[in-house]
Amino acid sequence: MNILWLQSGGCGGCTMSLLCAENPNIVDTLADAGIRFLWHPALSIETGQEARALLEAVEVGETPLDILCVEGALLTGPKGTGRFHMLSGTGRPMLDWARALASRARHVMAVGTCAAYGGIPAAGGNPAGAVGLHYDGSHTGGALAADFRDKAGLPVINVAGCPTHPDWVTETLMLLAAGALSATDLDRFGRPRFYADHLVHHGCPKNEFYEYKASARELSELGCMMEHLGCVGTQAMGDCNIRPWNGQGSCTRGGYPCIACTSPEFEEPNHPFTETPKIAGIPIGLPSDMPKAWFMALASLSKAATPKRVGTNAISDRVRIPPGAKERK
Amino acid sequence: MTTLISGPFNRVEGDLEIRLEVADGQVKEAFANSPLYRGFEPMLLGKAPRDALTITPRICGICSISQSAAAAFALASASGAEMPEQGALVAAILHAAENLADHVTHFGLFFMPDFARPVYEDRPWHHRAVEHFTAMEGSGTRRLIEARAQLLHIVGQLGGKWPHTLAIQPGGVTKTPTASDKVRLRATLRSFRRYLETELIGGPLEDFLELSDAQTLESWGRGHAGLFFEIASDLGLETLGIGPRRYLSSGAYPLTAGRVTRAGIWRNGAGQTFKPEEIVEDLSHAWMLGESSHPAQGQTVPDEDMASPAYSWCKAPRLSGETMEVGALARQVIDGHPLALALADEGSVRARVAGRLLEIARTQIWLENWVDALAPEAVFMYPDPKPENGAGEAFVEAARGTLGHWTRFNAGEITGYQIIAPTTWNFSPRDKGGVPGPVEAALQGAPVRPGETTPIAVQHIVRSFDPCMVCTVH
To answer: Burial code of B214-224, b = ≥16 C-beta within 10 A, e = fewer?
Structure first.
């Protein structure tokens, strides 16, 4: 199975993250699954005319293409021309190339939230007209039409994340190579459910603080970051705290909030990223599938029942009171 | 005169197109086009000052922590925030881990594969280049990718993830390391040193740092570094791609006791003071509207008609009117390492790569020392003052060179944000005087073999700068 990878209006970070794949390394993971790059802008030898020839052969149908991976948003500006990103050496906007090549590919993968939904480049008034391949924010119809389906009948597979976890990408590719990814394996925004059926909250090391609404007031404190620091891990899709990043990390393990980077329009939360908006002191945006009144009732009960250990540690930068005080007697 | 358009110019970070005017078997003129504009600076206007900490790292997936650190220090310069000593130390560890990973990525994945091309089939070292550095297949490539992934566990451990961590804040770092973190970090670093000493550098790092001139460098003879020096001598890379030989560094890693490497400029063979107020961004050949200005007053308004004579989205920064080269070589020259000083005047493809190898060895040793100095009982972050009004500037040293951020904000909203990235310096277009940017000048005179469309010499020169095009325009 071959992959053609294009980098559009993004930061290249999803490729950089992909190179962090381990056990085995990215080269062996893909080769062992029978997957090879036809061309990748950061990794392949071919440059200039050699690379153009590869792209042209796919476009005219001479070289069959199994998977088109696009990383980065597609830029439609200025004035709908796509000229904010010309694919260098070709005199054609990347927007054109992506559309032409997508029609030739057996499967199309958007790698990262930019390629999926527009992502960060769509923030702040969207100065370059960034859209995703198949979505413009949370609406279908981006660079490709809303009714786009690949040759196997799948929509664009949105491996969203900013960046993507290397395993999300490699496992999606391996599932495709194994013929084991169907439309029902994707969620309502086209994300593979193997990681999007989890919440970032699942496995978060701050879970006990959350249980008691024992909140951190400042970054670096150990407590839950939902109440004051903008964390939306209870609503964000991703297995970030089940499957660690770079050995043992995750955003909340690193001491900063989840900003729902796998979600459409995460780039415009309508409040500062690290600050929870509140109405009358009550955070808006509570867990979406729980009645608000129940949440408030449980929260006030659990707050009242907070053990001294949990309350003290929540507003400290390290564990001040260890668990198991009784054990020591 | 023949025109060659080289693009997509790959194995650089981001998008690059190089136009060459060729005659008599050599490049007469070169034009570097950064063909991607996303508009990060206008995007930040109206947002909360702290949102820059989340948004600017996403300018670049390979220099992400550099952007993050620059944003944090710029905010700190506006608010008067200071990092506790140990917080600054962890910020430096995070940043150095990224820089070290970037240097090895450049060497093994971006730069060396060109020597495995068939054009060099007749060279005595070619089979070794093929074995170690064939793109995505070489034995050296595999080991390098594994070692790099493990090195970045440092960021997973202290910063949650790489790229795009939010761990570095104006008041310090968000995660307080423990004593067990410290020993784990040591273990990770010991493992990376083993990789460097058995493969990439090929011998004790301390011995490598004793190299002091071109002669001792040529006799190193070990590891992938030795293979490169052998190739460089055979191909004459010491005379290829000569830069302006004016260097700029803002000084790497601001610790409480001061920056770890010296800040300054190097001009006419001597060190001088770096005066940031002498920076002007020239817009004459950029698809940008407005006047040339210092970044503290700068703005970013794209010319949607992309009118001539502009040919790039990249602005052209100049320091007192002159182009400057930034990067590992520049940093090491300004810091006064004997080997870098010996190569300063050479200013070539070889010198740039040697500067990076030198810095790989030095960065590994810095990291080891900083981890030893970690004091888990200390404070790592102070509360952030979060003022509503202010203006600030900061410089950090990304792997590819000097990165500057300028922020200004009023009533809790950003009113101006300007960034000059390392490759903005190195790959700038011409200025109003028609003076080409550093890579454009370095390409003049590059040999072009019959039938070449992207001349191999041009590839070596361009990649020797390790351009990061996504940072360049942002």
So the answer is: beebbebebbb
